[in-house]
Amino acid sequence: MQAEAASAPAGIRAERSSVVAALRQAAAATGSDFHYLLGTAMRESGLRPDASAGTSSATGLFQFIDQTWLGLVKEHGARYGLGQYAAAITEGSDGRFRADAGQKASILELRKNPQVAALMAGEHAKSTQGQMKAALGREVYGGELYAAHFLGPDAACKLIRQCETNPGASAAALFPQAAGANRTVFYRADGTPKSVREVYDWALRQPGQSGTVRVAQLPDITPSDTTPAAPRLPTALETVTAAQDAQIQMLLASVMNWQPRGGNNMFAALLGMNDESGPRTAPLSFNPGLLSLFAEAKKDAAS
Question: Per-residue pLDDT for 105 more than 70?
Answer without folding.
Answer: yes
